[in-house]
Write a structure and sequence with these properties.
Helix content is 25%, strand content 28%. It is an alpha/beta fold. It has a domain at 6-117 and 185-231: Class I glutamine amidotransferase (GATase) domain (Rossmann fold, 3-Layer(aba) Sandwich). β7 and β8 form a beta hairpin. α3 crosses α7 and α5 (85-97) crosses α6 (111-117). The mean pLDDT is 96. The structure holds zinc ion. Zinc ion binds at residues 105-106, 157, 203.
Length: 250
C-alpha cells in the first residue's frame, strides 16, 4: 500500500451531456462523474478522485491540480479543438515527468493523445449498434487481471482498423464487432517517464461506463499507470558531460 492515496483527476469535456437529451438520459450526472464513481468504488481508500471539465477555468487543470495528479483519465469528443494548447502542453509535460494518462474512446483524436503519439490516430467507425467482444491478448498484464475474457458490450459504436497509432508497447485487448471488423482496443505506451493506456469502450449514448467489467478495467488501468517510484534522472535538459564524469567522486 502506498503511503498516501494516489491522486486521480478524471477529465471530461462534458458537452454531449449538456447538449443532447439522449446522453443526459444515459449519464444524468455526466460521464466524468460515472467514471469517477467507478474509480472510487473500485479503488476505495487507495485513491482520491476529483473531476475536471472543459468549461472550468484552465479546463479544471490548474498547475496545482496538475502537480497533484498521479493519474489522469481523459474523455473528449466534440470539444477537442476547444482545449487550449497551453494546457495540452502542461499535461504532456506531466506525462513525460511520470503522470499516468488513460485515454478513453473518442479521445483518440484529442490533442493530448495525438501530441503524445505523434501520428494522426484516425480509425474506422460506424454507429450501428454493433455487438463488441473484447478479447484479452495479454492475460498476465495487470490491466487484464480479474476481468472476464472476453468482455461483451451488447451495443456499441464500431471502431475498426486501421488505427493510425505507433506500434504499442503492449496490446492488452483486441475487439471484434458484429460487422466483422477488429480493433486494438486496449494499448499501452511509455512516453518519457509516464505510462499511457488507450481504452476504446465508452461511446456517449450507451451505458458502458456502468458495466462492472469495464469499471474494473478502468480501475486496473489507473493502478497500472501510477508509478510511485520514479526513475530519478532529470530528463528536462541535455547535460554537457566531460569524459570520466561518472568515475569522479561527488
Ligand atoms: Zn463515440
Amino acid at each position: 500500500m502506498p503511503d498516501h492515496p494516489l491522486q486521480v483527476t478524471v477529465w471530461g469535456e462534458n458537452l454531449h451531456e449538456q447538449r443532447h437529451e439522449k446522453v443526459r438520459t444515459v449519464y444524468p450526472e455526466g460521464m466524468h462523474n460515472a467514471i469517477a464513481d467507478a474509480l472510487r468504488d473500485g479503488l476505495g481508500s487507495r485513491a482520491e478522485v476529483r473531476t475536471a471539465t472543459l468549461d472550468q477555468p484552465q479546463h479544471g487543470l490548474t498547475d496545482e491540480v496538475l502537480d497533484n495528479t498521479d493519474v489522469m483519465t481523459w474523455w473528449g469528443h466534440i470539444g477537442h479543438q476547444m482545449v487550449a494548447d497551453e494546457i495540452v502542453s502542461k499535461v504532456q509535460q506531466r506525462v513525460l515527468e511520470g503522470m499516468g494518462l488513460i485515454v478513453l474512446h473518442s479521445a483518440h483524436l484529442s490533442k493530448i493523445f495525438q501530441r503524445l503519439m505523434g501520428t494522426r490516430c484516425t480509425l474506422r467507425w460506424r454507429e450501428a449498434d454493433d455487438k463488441e467482444v473484447i478479447w484479452t491478448v495479454a492475460p498476465t498484464h495487470p490491466i487484464a487481471q480479474g476481468v472476464p475474457q472476453p468482455m461483451i458490450i451488447p451495443r456499441h459504436e464500431m471502431y475498426g482498423e486501421f488505427f493510425d497509432i505507433p506500434v504499442p508497447d503492449e496490446v492488452v485487448f483486441i475487439s471484434n464487432f458484429s460487422g466483422g471488423e477488429v480493433f486494438r482496443s486496449g494499448c499501452c505506451f511509455h512516453r518519457g517517464k509516464g505510462r499511457v493506456f488507450y481504452f476504446s469502450p465508452g461511446h456517449e449514448t450507451y451505458p458502458i461506463y456502468f458495466q462492472p467489467e469495464i469499471r474494473k478495467t478502468l480501475c486496473n488501468a489507473v493502478a497500472w499507470a501510477h508509478q510511485p517510484e520514479l526513475f530519478s534522472v532529470d530528463t528536462s535538459q541535455c547535460p554537457m558531460t566531460p569524459t570520466g564524469w561518472f568515475e569522479q567522486s561527488a
